Predict the 3D structure of the following.
Amino acid sequence: MSMINYASREINCKIVYYGPGLGVKTTNLEHVYGKVSPDTRGKLISLATETERTLFFDFLPVDLGTIRGFKTRFHLYTVPGQVYYNASRKLILKGVDGIVFVADSQIERMEANQEAMQNLYDNMSEYGYDLTRMPFVIQYNKRDLPNAAPIRDLQSALNPGWEISDPSRMRVTANPFRSGENLVEQLQTGEWVEHAPYFDAVAVTGEGVFDTLKAVSKLVLKSLA
């Protein structure tokens, strides 16, 4: 997963933005790239397909501190949204340290969201990665549109929670990103489940973009520490 560069004393971490086609994954990266200091970022690389683009760049945030004297450099990637490019999706996921699933909030895109989420789980499992045990957040985008589905419906479809089997983790855990909600909770049926953190966003205006990135970055750093 993460790579250590002893010469520059940097830990290199890979964060991948995943989701259905036209779900503004690239808009997220373009907004971040435009806001971070030119002195701390690498070149923005764009690989165009017939219908959309795959972007990636790296940057060194100055406000996240160090891990045992090493700075952390994040490499941000988007995957092609179309299933046709699944081989490219899988290649980009290799060595990933954190995942941001960018869902399209429009009601008519619910099925596309679910297909992309299942595809993410399938591709991760091929590498032997357990998505439920690694830094993973969900971003519900396009919240400004009149046909945006209610958050509760998106949560039910995309983030219902995965069952916890480890007794040491069976305790109510508050969601640090949303007051009054829990990431880990016990259902009325008795099972314990854990949810991924989620964020509302309007990527075209930048709303929620950095909240999402900061959350997954902190989870990656926590996993490294």
User: Anything to note?
Assistant: The domain at 3-147+196-224 is CATH 3.40.50.300 (Rossmann fold). Residues 122 and 128 are 10 Å apart (CA to CA). DSSP finds five helices and twelve strands in the chain. The first helix runs from residue 25 to 35.
